[in-house]
Amino acid sequence: xxxxxxxxxxxxxxxxxxxxxxxxxxxxxxxxxxxxxxxxxxxxxxxxxxxxxxxxxxxxxxxxxxxxxxxxxxxxxxxxxxxxxxxxxxxxxxxxxxxxxxxxxxxxxxxxxxxxxxxxxxxxxxxxxxxxxxxxxxxxxxxxxxxxxxxxxxxxxxxxxxxxxxxxxxxxxxxxxxxxxxxxxxxxxxxxxxxxxxxxxxxxxxxxxxxxxxxxxxxxxxxxxxxxxxxxxxxxxxxxxxxxxxxxxxxxxxxxxxxxxxxxxxxxxxxxxxxxxxxxxxxxxxxxxxxxxxxxxxxxxxxxxxxxxxxxxxxxxxxxxxxxxxxxxxxxxxxxxxxxxxxxxxxxxxxxxxxxxxxxxxxxxxxxxxxxxxxxxxxxxxxxxxxxxxxxxxxxxxxxxxxxxxxxxxxxxxxxx
Length: 417
Description:
This protein has helices at about 1-15, 55-65, 80-90, 105-110, 120-125, 130-135, 170-175, 190-195, 215-230, 245-250, 265-270, 310-320, 325-335, 350-360, 375-390, 395-405, 410-415, and strands spanning about 35-40, 70-75, 95-100, 145-150, 155-160, 180, 200, 210-215, 235, 255-260, 275, 280-285, 290, 295-305, 365. It is α/β, with parallel strands linked by helices. This is ABC transporter substrate-binding protein. Belongs to the bacterial solute-binding protein 1 family. Keywords: Signal, Transport.
């Protein structure tokens, strides 16, 4: 972080309190026009002719900022690939880019993302709940990136099979219909364990030295529950190839767990019975009831402090996360906004409501620090072992403990650095 301070401090001095829409410069705003070039990276869907959200926002930004004569250069780099692509050469990377917040640690290490301006910070705090703000907050407590949508998964279900009370309990649902869940996937499986008290890197999910911890008895209890779950004839194991969605489409499954990216396909599959909700609870054989908690994050817009036009880049990043831009993003592409003032815009959209309810009520922040990279593979291996029957009621305690013990080196390695 000390290495980052030199770059971010210089940019902060340049930005001052400026942001999109701020032209007050002591009453003496410059009348000259500054010719600049801005390279912007985003997903192809935001640049397609059928949904040209990004080019539209660029034109609107130009109208609002006549002090700039901008030459735009857009390129396709998805939010999920931004961190990897930017860090290859931050000095040659885009001035403005969209990124998934789990890459924040990578971007900070590469000195490739700037702290937002004071005006942007005020905008974010007005628009977003604390949960979303935390998703773009670095370990130094500063905000990097302007959120524009949440990122998590929730439950889609056939409302002719389950009532509004049924969906509160996974066990009740399994008595009335078939449910699919991707137990072998390390982004989905943890929902059972974080719901039962597993912590990842401390209270704020940002301290590698705190490691990954869980009470042994609770871990065993949950593991035994999952062993029984796999054997339940009304439970269908999903996989990364979309088996759950396919089963929902052919009517052999009544509920799946996915995100807004599946909304269109699920709506086509269920028709008038289309519904979505936040995650349910589950009750173990030991009598403990736990609330499932999905990992959540956000997608945001960042600016590159290495930009030749850092002030304009920061202002445009702020604009892409503005209320106006988020509303257009939802209208044009059904990208669910994080802006609380736009709640009425998607109040009749089950997936949008379910996503925001999940983030607010049944989720836990996915850590963005580098140590999180050590979590995924062991978790996937453990989940696959449960699915394959290698973990059973007899060895559940030993297997769960071995899985958790395997993470102890994360904290010890971090402590030695």
